[in-house]
Amino acid sequence: MQTLTIRRPDDWHVHLRDGDMLRAVAPFTARQFERAIVMPNLSPPVTTVAAASAYRERIIDAAGPGFTPLMTCYLTDEADPDELARGHGEGVWVAAKLYPANATTNSAHGVTDIRKLWPALERMQAIGMPLLVHGEVTDAQVDVFDREAVFIERTLAPLVRDFPALKVVLEHITTRQAAEFVRDAREGVGATITPQHVQLNRNALFAGGLRPHAYCLPVLKREEHRLAVRAAAVSGSPRFFLGTDSAPHVIGRKEQDCGCAGIFNAPYALESYAAVFEAEGALDRLEGFASEHGPRFYGLPLNAAQVTLERGETEVLPLIEAEGQALVPFHAGERLGWRLRAA
Ligand SMILES: NC(=O)N[C@@H](CC(=O)O)C(=O)O
Ligand SMILES: [Zn+2]
Ligand SMILES: [Zn+2]
């Protein structure tokens, strides 16, 4: 097969940031995807309908025509059910995002105790607004590699039980436990999967030295987990869908004493996923994962347009500079075997 034409995909988890960084990265996402679920972890976080509408306009300006940002509400301990319902009703918010306080980048205003969210979750369940979850406990006693599995046990499993009709997406899954939990859960539970978590295991963090550009949260896990998440991605199950978690930080913030978590994978995300599906003999399932499972889960229409991937070397630059931002992309300096044909 020399070309692969699929329905135009969407990215169900991306960080587009704001200001110069937004202008630098939004065109990469817009080139690859028709829609994207935009994470609200700006500083300050996007907690009001007004802030989300204004942010949406800035994204549309930066991305150019043909791209639709789908906005999310950042949940705090003070999350107001009426504001959530209003934003959802007005078509501004597609979903709301739960960051356990201090679990990841810009999550200081996140939720300190899930019980504080109950009124918000009740309303979201009633109106059919999905809950997106950064699934890691923040308990310093828990080993950083176990934080996702412990979160599932302590928080997610009870939540999925207590809110039996709430749509829940476990974002950027990294473990066998997460893949199995989502696979076996009740209806209305899904997961996004990033390109890095199906291609790298935690050895990548220490390959010949400390590798800040392989550092993201949840952190890469053992090989056993990579294989389980990879199997879920290519399984064809509608519960698993594409979410890059592209999370740009300028090079200086990655390469420092306390480097930021996040991998900037937007520029070649599709080429990267295609390599995985091909290696697994599952290229015929790429379209479901990239373009169908997500919209069906969210209850949104499938995109009508198509894109074509063609076989051919794509050279990933070691450094991408745009709008004064210097970013090291995922696969920096490598060659990928597929190329997204220009629209
Ligand atoms: N994934 C990351 O490592 N970082 C994300 C936050 C997140 O998605 O948890 C970021 O905003 O930089
Ligand atoms: Zn996260
Ligand atoms: Zn993220």
TrEMBL record:
UniProt domain Amidohydrolase-related: residue ranges: 11-301
EC category: hydrolase
Binding site for Zn(2+) 2: 97, 134, 172
Keyword Nucleotidyltransferase among record annotations: no
E.C. number: 3.5.2.3
Record's catalysed reaction(s): (S)-dihydroorotate + H2O = N-carbamoyl-L-aspartate + H(+)
GO molecular function: dihydroorotase activity; zinc ion binding
InterPro entries assigned: Amidohydro-rel, DHOdimr, Dihydroorotase_CS, Metal_Hydrolase
Keyword Transcription among UniProt keywords: no
Cofactor binding mode and count: Binds 2 Zn(2+) ions per subunit.
An annotated GO BP: 'de novo' UMP biosynthetic process
Residues noted as binding Zn(2+) 1 in the record, renumbered to the chain: 13, 15, 97, 245
GO cellular component: cytosol
Positions bound to substrate: 15-17, 41, 134, 217, 249, 261
Superkingdom classification of source: Bacteria
Active site: 245
Pfam families linked to this entry: Amidohydro_1 (PF01979)
Cofactor(s) needed by this chain: Zn(2+)
N6-carboxylysine sites (modified residues): 97
Quaternary structure and partners: Homodimer.
Function in brief: Catalyzes the reversible cyclization of carbamoyl aspartate to dihydroorotate.
Protein name, as recorded: Dihydroorotase
Organism: Sphingomonas ginkgonis
